[in-house]
Amino acid sequence: ALITQFSAQLLGFILAGAAASLAGPWALLALQTLAILIGLVATLFLPSLPPLEKTTDEDDPNHVHDRGWRTGYHIVIESKRLYPVFFSTLSVGIFFIGIFMVALPLTIRNVFDGGQFEIAVVNVCFWGGTIVTTMVLLNRHPIRRRGRAMVLAVMVGSLSLIGVSLSTDFYMVCGFVTGWGLCAGVNMAMSRTIMQTEAPAQARARVLAFYNLGFLGAAPLGAMCAGFATELLGPQLATGIFAGMMIVFTLWLIASTPVWVIDRHEDEA
Questions:
Q1: What angle do CA 198, 201, 204 make, to 5 degrees?
Q2: In the 3-class helix/strand/coil scheme, how is the chain assigned residue by residue?
Q3: Cα 204 to Cα 252: distance, rounded to the nearest angstrom
Q4: Residue 194: C-alpha distances to residues 69, 221, 239 (Å)
Q5: How far is 107 from 105, CA to CA, in rounded Å?
Q6: Phi, psi of 56 (to 5 degrees)
Q7: Residue 163 has pLDDT above 90, yes or no
Q8: What angle do CA 26, 27, 32 make, to 5 degrees?
Q9: Out of 109-113, 128-132, 195-199, 265-269, which region has the weakest mean confidence (pLDDT)?
């Protein structure tokens, strides 16, 4: 699923870079409309699956208490394996997505005099890195120390962004962004794996919904903060500061939560 998503995004950025230079910005909106229509048609062929029946009773410690929309929140917060992943994902939404959406395009335009083609190239570097990582994960044994892999990927990705903040030419930016993409592939795969394997089967959809709320819901806040920081400090310095804050937060997460010891279950197929 991830490699399908990443490949589609990679193709989208290639098309966007070509279409915008040939036909103008309106072509991007036309491509987006076409993509949404394709997705709409695809959803019509999805099977309608019934919800899972409850297999536990009130006395079972694994029983899921239905609290409505709060069910996913309570399951995540009360789980020693889920809440560190959620907080890590929340920090990615604030610090990394703000850089990706705001600071990085402004760095290309304001610092290196790039346009839509250069922005497309950088996005191809990022998503190309995630595709390479995903291909590697598909062709190796499952990672056992999932929490450790997730936080180390965040740390190395942050160091790559510090490299972006220190870059002196466009090619250096492309290289460091590719490294960031390689790390992002590990982080996204591990965080989603942990959320799905640790969530109770009867409430997996609600847990994943809460996970996505943390990832995508924090993105507007991260973009706004990145915008203010970029206006005050410049895009490259803002990128370095956000990456440094991400490192500090991840070190706190390792020291104060059990994220470092989250691993694969022995009974997993």
A1: 70
A2: CHHHHHHHHHHHHHHHHHHHHHHCCHHHHHHHHHHHHHHHHHHCCCCCCCCCCCCCCCCCCCCCCCCHHHHHHHHHHHCCCCHHHHHHHHHHHHHHHHHHHHHHHHHHHHHCCCCHHHHHHHHHHHHHHHHHHHHHHHCCCCCCCHHHHHHHHHHHHHHHHHHHHHCCCHHHHHHHHHHHHHHHHHHHHHHHHHHHHHCCHHHHHHHHHHHHHHHHHCHHHHHHHHHHHHHHHCHHHHHHHHHHHHHHHHHHHHHHCHHHHCCCCCCCC
A3: 28
A4: 21, 25, 28
A5: 5
A6: -130, 160
A7: yes
A8: 100
A9: 265-269
| Mean of pLDDT over the chain | 87
Report the amino acid identity of residue 211.
Y
Structure-token pair, residue 69: 């929309």
Instruction: Give the up-direction half-sphere exposure of residue 178: CA atoms within 13 A in the CB hemisphere.
Output: 11
Most confident of 5-9, 21-25, 181-185, 263-267: 181-185
Per-residue pLDDT tens for 115-143?
Answer: 878 888 898 899 899 999 989 998 888 88
Contact 97, 219 (CB under 8 A): yes
Kindly state the tokens that stand for 125.
Answer: 């570097």
Q: What is the pLDDT of residues 27-83, one digit of tens each?
A: 778 888 998 999 999 999 999 877 766 655 555 455 566 667 778 888 888 889 999
Size of the chain, expressed as the number of residues it contains: 269
The Cα–Cα gap between 150 and 146 comes to 6
Q: How far apart are the first and last CA of the chain?
A: 19
